Every structure is written in C-alpha cells, then in structure tokens.
Amino acid sequence: MARNKIALIGSGQIGGTLAHLAGLKELGDIVLFDIAEGMPQGKALDLAESSPVDGFDSGLSGTNTYEGIEGADVVIVTAGVPRKPGMSRDDLLEINLKVMEQVGAGIKKYAPDAFVICITNPLDAMVWALQKFSGLPANKVVGMAGVLDSARFRYFLAEEFNVSVEDVTAFVLGGHGDTMVPLTRYSTVAGVPLTDLVKMGWLTAERLEEIVQRTRDGGAEIVGLLKTGSAFYAPAASAIQMAESYLKDKKRVLPCAAHLDGQYGQKDMYVGVPTVIGANGIERIIEIDLNSDEKAMFDKSVASVNGLVDACKKIQPAL
Length: 319
Ligand code: TXD
What we know:
By secondary structure, the chain is an alpha/beta fold. Helix content is about 45%, strand content about 20%. The protein contains ten helices and 14 strands. The protein has a six-stranded parallel beta sheet with strand order 3-2-1-4-5-6. A three-stranded antiparallel beta sheet has the order 7-10-11. Strand 12 (about 250-260) and strand 13 (about 265-280) form a beta hairpin. The protein is globular and about 55 Å long. It starts with a strand and ends with a helix. The site of 1,4,5,6-tetrahydronicotinamide adenine dinucleotide has 31 residues, from helix 1 and helix 3.
C-alpha cells in the first residue's frame, strides 16, 4: 500500500513544525509548499537529514507550485500573513482572504479528495472562505482551534492541581481565542467535573475564572513573550492530532471549527463544536444542551464570527 501524502500549504513556523511531527509519527510522505522560494525546499531537506537520526521513513520535499500537492490525502493550511503593528484586523482579513482564494483554487485542482485542515487566522472566517473557494464537501474542510484552546486549558488546570495533563479533559466551544466558550461542567480531572472540584475546595470559582481567561488570552501570552511571531508548537501538535484521527480512522472526539447546517441553530457557518473525525472527515457534530450562561457566551461567539464572515462577503461578493 502506498504511503499517505500530506501537503502543508505554508511552510513557516507552524508548517515546519507540522512537517517534523508528521515525519516523526510516520504519517506519510510530506510536501511543504510556500510562495517563498527555496524555503520549503530547505526545510524539507533539513528535516529529511534528521530522519536517519530519528529513524523515520517519510519522503520530504519542498515546492513553490501547486502541482506538487497533487493527490494529497491531507492538506494543512497555514499560509497567510500575521498581524503586524499598525495593521487592523480587517487589513489582515483582506490579505488572508486573497491567500485562501489562491489556496482554495490549488486544492480544488490538485487535491480535491483531501481532508483539509485550516489553521490561518482569523480562523473561523478563513476556514469558511476556504471551503467555499475550494468547493470541497463541508465535511472534508475543518478548522483547527478547539484542540489548541482545550490543550491550553488542560495544561493550566494540570499545573494548578499538580496532576498529570493526561488526566485532565477539557471541553470548549465557540470561536478561537477571545470568544472561546469553556464548558466547565464538562471539563474534568479523571471524570470529576470542574464544577464539583470547586465544591470540593480544589480551587475557587474566581480562580477557575482566571484560568479560563488565561486560556482565552493564551495566544496573546505567547506573542507577548516571543515578540515576533505567534505560537507554533502547540498549534502544530493540535492539527497533527486531527490529521492522525482522519488517516487512521480513529474517530477521535475533538473540538474543531466545523460547518454547521442547522446544528446549534446555525446555518452555513463555521464555529468550534465537538466533532468526531474519522475516515469520512467530520463524521458527526455532537450537539449538547447549553445552559443559559453557556448559550449567552456561545451566541456572542457566533456573532463575532458572523461579523468576520460578513466582512469577507463585502470584500469578495462572490462568496
Ligand atoms: O489556533 C489557531 N488556528 C492558530 C492560528 C494558532 C496559532 C497561529 N495561527 C495562525 O496560523 C497565524 O495567525 C497565521 O495566520 C497562521 C500561520 O502561523 P505561522 O506562525 O506558521 O506563520 P508564518 O511563520 O508567518 O508562516 C506563514 C507562511 C509564510 O512562510 C509565508 O511565506 C506563507 O505562509 N505564505 C503563503 N504560502 C502560500 N501561499 C500564499 N499566498 C502565501 N502567503 C504567505
């Protein structure tokens, strides 16, 4: 059986880390694509030269043309520009929307059967646009944010309680970052909900709220420390978990920005919800009952995503 092919559109900080992790996990042969000449080729060669040391067999190559991604089974998109000083969110939206248009056309032509994971910000709007531009079925185009947001939440909680990260589960909904909706009653330490842990005196409700807020601001905290660029190790690990669930038909239950068609009362929009990822892409969207506080937070998140999508439609009326 031929190896799977994984195409990485954008070979920057996250793209390079994705290639490294996909290689170490032997998920398949890896193609790095970027508009920067030589850079994807250089990263591919450097990584390939690490393979004898780490003992993995993955073909690694770099390309500046979309032909190179032909027949990919998984495409992970990080292409775009980050926000620079003086640039508004709308400026960023306009630039990255154009990037999604090119990337969507490339995927449509060369990898129409792929499972596509979008990472580029502003995430929920970009994945929506990428699905439209590529014309791929909505169950095959998904955005990565919830796995990262819940990983941050899990890490902070494990640190707080001095327990293993493995025993902390977290459940988040909604848009990426600022409007993330943590569901504390469904987040647990070894099955015990955080709401019970508050009653048991493990932490106060105020402390829990501080941890939730730190999670929402998790991206900004890293940007503040790094000074240039944004987080890349945890975002890459999160997207690889999604790709692995698809390639191995693991049917992991993972929070992703998925296309809603009536679920949670939303039509034709992408926002973070719990999903099942298997060989058919997004195989199920898990719809849970929200209490009034959670619903208010979720609605706020949906409104903020819709604002970005409306801005996309203004820039590109064809959408
Ligand atoms: O949770 C999440 N979804 C995120 C999102 C968490 C962290 C970072 N997130 C976003 O991912 C971030 O705001 C960016 O939009 C992307 C990629 O982040 P990364 O840190 O990898 O950015 P880089 O290092 O700037 O890499 C982007 C690459 C760079 O090499 C450019 O040359 C390339 O994208 N680029 C393009 N490639 C192909 N085609 C086009 N048009 C293009 N334009 C730029």
